[in-house]
Amino acid sequence: WQLGSQDAATPMMQGIIDLHHDILFFLILILVFVSRMLVRTLWHFDYQTNPIPLRIVHGTTIEIIRTIFPSIILMFIAIPSFALLYSMDEVVVDPAITIKAIGHQWYRTYEYSDYNSSDEQSLTFDSYTIPEDDPELGQSRLLEVDNRVVVPAKTHLRMIVTPADVPHSWAVPSSGVKCDAVPGRSNQTSISVQREGVYYGQCSEIRGTNHASTPIVVEA
Asked: What residues does each domain of the chain span?
């Protein structure tokens, strides 16, 4: 049914899911309360029961209650929201691996800055989408690439995202990461994949034809 989020692969995504469930609890309470008040109003104050409506200008007690209770609910929502927001902005000072993702019009280039090849150059490779008519058995349509981003599990990683031409976005829902790439600057985010698996993402920035056909595949 695809009604919920993908299974969390990082503590960040788990925090997002937990916050969603907490807020949903308050939303259900508010929905039940407002629905009950609406039904009672329609039942007790219809034109047959009260042909002459009451003319109430204001009520001090009800105004105080309807001001204090929403404030308390907002406080219970705001505290975990800000805690999660600031934790998502934290960048690991000493990551085990730094990976640079360079966005191109229809593909991505990944650079492992901490590892050098035989000619003392950083380990770099391009990641192209596997064509729609050329997937292997078991591969997802328009979600698979020829070269995956391989990362170790339970390790702190730093992702540096930058574009080579137009705006891009590096987004993997299971990791709770969506990092925009703006021309002329580099953005960074931290990831810590907690379990082994293959995680898929897509470009989340509208940038022209087939912008969604440049998937991201992370293998831990």
From this structure: 11-89, 97-219
